[in-house]
Amino acid sequence: MSSKETEALVCSKISEDLSDLNIGLIPVAVLDSNSVKISIKAAALNFPDLLMTQGKYQSKPNLPFALGMEGSGVISEIGDEVSRFKEGDEVVFGGWGHGAIAKSIVLPAGMVSLKPKNFSFAEAACYKTAYLTAYVGLIRRGELLMNENLLVHGATGGVGMAAVQLGKLYGANVIATGTSDQKLSVTKSWGADHVINTLSQGKTSFKESVKELTEGRGADVIYDPVGGDVFDESIRCINWGGRLLIIGFAGGRISSVPVNYPLIKGFSIIGVRAGEYGRKDPIKGKENIHIINELAEAGKIKPYICKEFEFEESKEALIYLQNRKLIGKVAILIS
Phi/psi of residue 161, each to 5°? Predict the structure, then answer.
C-alpha cells in the first residue's frame, strides 16, 4: 500500500445484496495547503450508507467509493495555510458524503472540527449527523416551542433518538414511536415521555394513541425519518398549525398527500436536509454545528451506541444495519 492509498470498506458495484462490498484499497486525496490528513479512529454507520450501495440515495458517488458518512480521528498532517489545527489534534468530520470507513482521509480543514473532549472516538464519530439533522429539523425548520407535543417516528434509530433527546432538552412533550417494545424501552430511558408501538395486528396504527396523549389536539411537530404508512397515519393526528418534518424514507415507500389535508387542517409539510441547509446558508450552518458541539461539550447530548464492530467486521456491521437490529447507532473501531 502506497501513501496515496488507504484501506477502506469499498463499494465496487451497485447491488442489493452487498456482494460487491469488501475491505480494499482506495485512493487518498492529495494534501493541499488548506486541507488536513486524518488518521481515522472510528466511523459511524448511517442508513444512507446502505442506500448508496444500492444506488437509492440522492448522492451517488463515482465507483469505486469508500463508505462512511462520518468519523473521528487524529490529524497526522496539515496543509501550509491551515492555522486552526495542529498535528495530533483529535477531530470529527462528516455528515456530508462518504469515505469515513477507512484508515485515513484527506479533507478541507473547514469540514473538520475538534472532538468533544468528553466523548470517546466512537461517540464522536456517531453524534454529528444525527444531532445536526435533529437540530435543523426541530429548531430551524420545525420551530419547536416549549411545551409543544413532539411526535418522533423511528425513535429507536440514531436520528430518532437524537430528536427525542433534543426535543426533551428544548422543553417539548416527546412521544416516541417504533415497532419493538424492547427497543422503545431504551428510547424511553433516553428521555421520551411516552412511547407507542405502531404495529397493531400487522398494521401501522398510532392515531388514537397520539390523540389520547395530546388531549385530542394531535402533535404540533412530527419528525418523520420513516415515510410510507407512518407518514399516511401522521397526517391524521397532526394538530392545527402543525409542522410535519420530512427527514427520510427508511420505510421504503415515498408517500404523497392529498393537498386538501394540509388545507383543511392548516399544517405544513417541511423538507429537512441539514447538510444542504448549511450549504445554502453557511453562516447559520456554522452556527448549527457550533450549537451541537457546545451541547456535546456540556454533556447535554450523547449518542446511544448499541454495538461496536472492528474495522475487519465493517461489512458485517452494514448487514447488522440492514437487518434492522440496531438501537441508536453502530460504531466501527478502525485504529
Answer: -65, -35
- At residue 59, the pLDDT reads 79
**47 confidence band (pLDDT: 50, 70, 90):** confident
Gap between the Cα atoms of 148 and 136, Å rounded: 17
* Of 160, 134, 174, 188, residue with least CA distance to 251: 160
Q: Any idea which residue has 444525527 for its cell? A: 130
Residues 265 and 242 in one domain: yes
pTM, entire model: 0.91
Strand partners, 255: none
- In the structure grid, which three cell numbers stand for residue 290, read together? 457550533
pLDDT, tens only, 9-43: 999 999 888 888 999 999 999 999 999 999 999 99
Question: Nearest Cα to 288, choosing from 303, 280, 152?
Answer: 280
Alpha-carbon torsion 90, 96, 99, 102, what sign? positive
Percent of the chain whose predicted confidence (pLDDT) is above 70:
98
Q: Which residue has the higher pLDDT, 196 or 249?
A: 196
Q: What is the 3-state secondary structure (H, E, C) of 183-200?
A: HHHHHHHCCCCEEEECEE
Q: Measured between alpha carbons, how far is 158 from 329 in angstroms, rounded to an integer?
A: 5
Q: Is 182 helix (H, G, I), strand (E, B) or coil?
A: helix
State what percent of residues in the chain have pLDDT above 90.
80
Q: Where does a domain end: 275, 291, 314?
A: 275
Any residues with CB less than 8 A from the CB of 20 and at least 6 apart, and which? 11, 12, 13, 14, 53
Q: Domain with 74 in it: what CATH number?
A: 3.90.180.10
Range of the domain at 28: 5-115+304-333
